[in-house]
Every structure is written in C-alpha cells, then in structure tokens.
Amino acid sequence: MTSTLTPATHRASFSLAGETDARRAVDTLTEVFFEGDAAVAAFERPDGRWDVTVHFAQEPDRDLVRELVAGAAGADIAQTISFDVVEAKDWVKASLDDLVPVPAGRFVVHGSHDRARVPPNKLGIEIEAALAFGTGHHGTTRGCLLLLDHLLKSRSPRRVLDLGTGTGVLAIAAAKSCHAKSCRQSRHQPILASDIDSPSVAVARDNMRINSVAPGVRVIRATGFAAPDFAREGPFDLVLANILANPLRQLAGPMRRHLAPSAHVILSGLLTPQARAVVAAYRARGLVPVRQLRIDGWSSLLLRYEG
User: Fold this and answer.
1) Structural domain span for residue 50
2) What is the pLDDT tens value at each position of the chain, 307 positions in all?
3) C-beta atoms surrounding 66 within 10 Å
C-alpha cells in the first residue's frame, strides 16, 4: 500500500436545516472559490439536517466566508461557522484501518488487506476506499446486501440492473451469487450496472476485474433510464438502486416501465422517515412492499412488481 500524506488544510464547517439551503450555500461557495482553492461538500445527517464543509488549501478570508454564507443561508447561520485546521495525515492508511470486513448475510465486504479474513463459506467482495460511494460500511449498502441475500435464496433473476452502482458492490454481489449457483449463461445475461458519474463508472469497472466478475457485468454511464441500453437489455427481473429518496421517487415511473412481470426491486439511500413517501410512489405504479430493513437510521426496501 502506497503512503499518501495529505497536506494540512483549513476547514470551515456549518449546519443547515434542509437540502434547499445546503444546495444554495454550496452553489454560492463553489462559484466564488476556484477549483483547487477550495473543496465544498454537503452531507445529510440521519436527523435530516445538512452539514456543509469547505476545505481550503490556504487560510481563508473568514469575513468573506461568513459574508457569502450569510447571503445564501442567513446571518444567523453565518455566525455559527467554525474554522479549524485539519492536520497532515495519511488518509489512505487511516481509511483502510477503519474499513474492517463487513458481513451481510452470505456476503463479506472487505479491502485487499483483509482477503485472508473472509471465511471459506462466504462470498468475499473486495472494495477499496475510493471516490465512488459504497464500501459496504454504510447502512444503506449493508441493507441492500442483506435484502439481496434474502431474495436470492429463493429466486434466480435472469436480468439484473444495478442503477447508480457507485463502487459496483451490489452488481458484484449479484454476479458472485449467480456464479455460486452455477448459473448458465444461456439463462442469465450479463448484469447491467449504470452510474451518472464517470469516475464511479471507472471505479466500478476496476472492481469488477478485481472481483473476477467482469465478464458477467457491463458498466455504463447513464442518467436515469435515458440510455437505450435499458430498453435493449430489459425488462429486468431485479433492479437494485441505492441512491437517494428524491431521485428514487422521480424514477418510480420510468423504472416500472423497465420491469418484467413479478420483478423485484431493492431500494435504499433513504432516511427512515423518507421511506413512507418512497413506498407510496412505487405502490402507485403497482409495486408492493415485501420487506424493510432499518440500519443506523437508514431504510432499505424490498418491493415486488404485481403488474
């Protein structure tokens, strides 16, 4: 493992009540600070609030930062900004130290440094810390894996789609399960995995090769269901979508049009209070909830299409 010592950075942090305010603040800060001068990120917390963090290469003008945040989110929020310095650290080593193997049913998600810790009766999924989302340590990914494991004990879907694949962990799990069942290529076509983000597509393709499932998974860059690949390779017997609540609600209609009769859908990326609205959107399209898992404040759903 190569040591990657990240230089010390200056950080500004604050919290906002909702997604709209967080997006406005991020947009404002991104417009002012050039790429390389600052990195802006926003994350939703389990309680529904949003944390916004800005990392600066050089010590920032604090008054300017407060002025920008005040314009985007109000003077009261600007007064709550905290400034500190993040010391130099080998973040790669630190992240790997934290990424212990994660069991999820028959699956174990692990890094390359933990290959030997995967029990022989489990299906190891090797995922390194990367830019793409999904190492198995987040409650949404683990929830999806547990539901997938539950479903595949009684089902053997022929056409599988991993929508918003991130690191590719769910597609890898489905492909390894198929291999463990000795699925015949004449019955099971390659899994289709898609992501809107080009770096995620590259990471996912690398992970397919690392996990020896590349021939059984095709990874594409696509937004929603717009690419012709979905119509060509569907309708799908199983769709996996670990995204976010709002995009999942918007995708309910397009997804239904790409489902085979009696198909199953596994959804996650939902804070538990958001699950009811997502279920309602899919129930309106003929999908009924079968099972719901709650892990660390996040919900994962298994639904069946009755169309």
Assistant:
1) 5-91
2) 444 445 678 999 999 998 888 888 988 888 888 655 788 888 888 788 999 999 887 889 999 999 999 999 999 999 999 999 877 655 445 544 555 677 889 998 888 777 888 888 899 999 875 544 454 556 888 899 999 999 998 888 999 999 999 889 999 999 998 765 655 444 557 899 999 988 889 989 999 999 999 999 999 999 999 999 999 999 999 999 999 898 999 999 999 999 999 999 999 988 888 999 999 999 999 999 999 999 888 899 999 999 7
3) 19
CB within 8 Å of 2: residues ≥ 6 apart: 92
Report yes or no on 295 lying in a domain: yes
Q: 3-state DSSP helix/strand/coil percent for the chain, to nearest 5?
A: 35, 30, 30
Q: What CATH number is attached to the domain comprising 151?
A: 3.40.50.150
**Beta bridge partner(s), residue 161:** 192, 239
- Read off the pTM: 0.69
**Of 91, 121, 152, which residue is a domain's last?**
91
- Compute the residue count for the chain: 307
Residues 9, 79: one domain? yes
